[in-house]
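User: Please predict structures.

Assistant: First:
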Amino acid sequence: MLDHGIGVITAAPYSALFPKRLFAVDDDGTIYAAETTNPGQSYHGFPYHGRLGKRLLAALRAIAREKDCETAFDRWVKRHITIGGPPDL
């Protein structure tokens, strides 16, 4: 999922290649976030609960649509996500 995640926070000391945080969608529609543990080397991933900006949410929905899990994604969003505010693209 890291290979297909959406990077957020790419300002130094992070970069587009190794962002501070990544967001991804699992095949079951669950939104995951991954945060750096060692910048540029490793991440710790976890199911994400909390705020998501509208642009980031739309980008994640596009991934869910590609994976054919948009209905499950929408259920996850309804239960666990507050729409608006950071993080966003």
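Second:
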Amino acid sequence: MRVFADPTELGSNSKLPQAVATVCEALPGLEARTGADLLITTLPIPASSDMLLERHLQSGMLVQLKRLNDLQSSITDSRLFHDILRMRESCALPWLVCTGVLTEFEGTAVMGNIETQRSMANKMVAINATGRQSLTYSAVSSALLAWRYYGGYVDMLSHDDLLLDWLGRQAKALVDIMAGKITELSPRAYFRELRAPGRIAWLATLFDGIGQKTAAAIYERLDNVKGEPATLFEAIQYVTTYVAVEVPGITNERIDQWRKHLGLKRKAAVGGSPATYAALDLAWRLEETGEVYWRGPEQWRFHYRNDGPFKIERLFTPYHLRELLGDVYTITYSVDDKTAKVTGLLHAITMDKESDLLVVLNKQDGIKYEKHIRIDKILDMVRETNG
């Protein structure tokens, strides 16, 4: 067993048991570098340089010692939490070892010394301990839990004389780890490291009936279609259209529930005009055909069609056409399955219960007239320019 100790632990004012001090090697700067009092290692090499010390830290254990009232004072001034963060950055196995008996008295924590011990009947033992009241017991207990949450390990020793044996057992554990006898041990992660949920976790959380497996399948489908990772917003758009039934586990009934939850109604209650999908920033819906429209490249509106293969098409909606009013366009549209064209000034958009109409102000044979074209019949539009 090799134990390096910060020189402050080996000075005349140190409370380190003499038996432990005898086996320790002084390592200047250990606490300043790592936040620890002791370093347990099995390597026979020196630790005289940063590179050599790093090798010891990669395979060893760091130990921070807290005795009696020192534990509570380190909680009060936050030293305890600075120690674990520095130790965790340096070593995968940071230990906090507290010596003394921790108990509760009238709501406060008492870290005491054992004064006497005596045997009683039926293998019972009576122990008398003396300590000082300080922080609340819950505060000390929470601090010890926080050390664990940050990825550290905690052990309580009733008195200092147990420390040498504890160090020996930990050194043996390191030997067993290196020999492969302890194969399940691995460095613990930061339990309290704040990480934003990934897109799969978000989607699974937002929609009842979508678990991790289904959410992963949804993103796999979207990623393949787009050729790049889809966003959470795009996944929400997808699962609220009926094309999402192509993913195993998603049904029309489920989609109806999700749409209702988000307020995506089939038709507006007043006037019969198409409902606005404000909750998802989806602009318009002309008919309930499984299509959802949103702003795409070139400021057009695009939609997903529920007609088999997943594809994107250009669509002209009232929301978009309002931005074009006042310009002259050549419009291609269909009437009774026949294609027709008209060139003129986009004059107005009217909506009624039956359809949305684009009004084109045109001149033919010197006569000014208005052409009303159903918006869902428009096939293409080309802006007319002078010259």
